[in-house]
Amino acid sequence: MRFGGHETFAIREGWLHKGLSLLIEQPDRLVDTYAADWLGVGRNMAKSIRHWLVATGLATQATASRSGRQVHLETTELGHLIHERDPYFSESGTWWTMHINLVHAPAHAASWLWFFNSFNLNRFERAVCIEGLHRHLQLTERRLPTLKTLHRDVACLLHTYARPIPPEHVDPEEARECPLTELGLLSYFRTTGHYQLHQGAKDIPPHVFGYALATAFPDTGTDANMVDVTLHDAIRHAGGPGKVFVLTSEALFDVALRVESDVPRGDIQIAGLASERVIRVRKKPPLEWLRDYYAHIEQRDRDAA
């Protein structure tokens, strides 16, 4: 599990677009001495952009076989798909996908995995969150990061998602707020210093809901048939939609009902099995769900025109 790597910077508006475009068009520039200049940011910010490209699944690290030293980054299939279909990261489904991938990236975003899967408080202060992560690591890891590292990692995580209440008055040109705050997962109450997770139903694109299921339950990506995921598993399974979307059982059921009516061809259905509700999902690889999502977006735009 890895902590840090982001240089204390949460993802900023335009960063993933800049980094992914440079990686695809001139990959050597992203890791050379002047990467910060090509990206138009500071040196530490350039390091952070490289980190987030890997942590979100847009890129993968390629290493030299002898030295084990990183030599360059390579674009993943997901990176190529988003660069082709949503290069400016303007669709909400793209950002939901980035979030899902962060929760499934222990090698690059270990605090994210812990926070969304194991942290059990809905209202908390930052110090409580740090202490909870520290206790978790004491029980599960042989080598612990320093408390300073954990402080920085948790601060970055919370800044990634928390919308301040009341809103801060900042220069829009600075673009410091992370686009993932728009997902509506977390609020920060400035007057009390408390954070609040939001467990209600959210506007999750139906195909991205399928992506989350296929990512959490690999059996959904093996053939052309259907697989049943119980509502209980969908809520409690690590990395499942209940965890990554921060949903109660009732909220997850509400989201699943909406998804069922919006996804064509019956790819996601609500069914009953032995008196227990299940989500019946067509077996498709996660990337196929995203291809369907962008095809749906293109059709929506054509219809609107």
How would the blueprint of this fold be written?
Elements: H1 15-25, H2 27-30, H3 35-39, H4 43-55, E1 59-63, E2 70-75, H5 77-85, H6 92-103, H7 110-118, E3 123-125, H8 126-140, H9 147-161, E4 162-165, E5 186-189, E6 194-197, H10 206-216, E7 226-230, H11 231-236, H12 241-244, H13 249-262, E8 268-273, E9 276-282, H14 286-304
Parallel strand pairs: 4-5
Antiparallel strand pairs: 1-2, 3-6, 5-6, 7-9, 8-9
Helix pairs in contact: 1-4, 6-10, 8-9, 10-14
What can you see in these coordinates?
The protein has 305 residues and is of the alpha+beta class. The protein has two domains: 15-197, no CATH class; 206-304, Arc Repressor Mutant, subunit A (Orthogonal Bundle), CATH 1.10.10. Helix content is 48%, strand content 14%. The chain has 14 helices and nine strands. 37% of the residues are buried.
Would you summarize the structure shown here?
The protein has 305 residues and is α+β, with helices and mostly antiparallel strands. The chain has helices at residues 15-25, 27-30, 35-39, 43-55, 77-85, 92-103, 110-118, 126-140, 147-161, 206-216, 231-236, 241-244, 249-262, 286-304; strands at 59-63, 70-75, 123-125, 162-165, 186-189, 194-197, 226-230, 268-273, 276-282.
